[in-house]
Amino acid sequence: MATTTTTTTQTTVKSRKTVATGKTKQVEFPDIQTIRDAIPKDCFVPSTARSLSYVARDLILASALVYLAVTFIPTIENPIARYSAWMVYGWAQGLVCTGIWILAHEAGHGSFSVHPRLNDFVGWALHSSLGVPYFSWKFSHHRHHRFTSHMEKDMVFVPATKQDRKAGIHTLFLDPEIVEDAPIVNLIQLIAHQLAGWQMYMMFNISSGKDSKQRTEKSWLRQSHFEPTSAVFRPSEALYIALADLGLFLVGCGLYYASTLVGWAMVGWLYFVPYMWWNHWLIAMYVFLKFPRPIDKIFWPMHFVASC
Question: InterPro entries per the record (predicted)?
Answer without folding.
Answer: FA_desaturase_dom (IPR005804), Fatty_acid_desaturase (IPR012171)
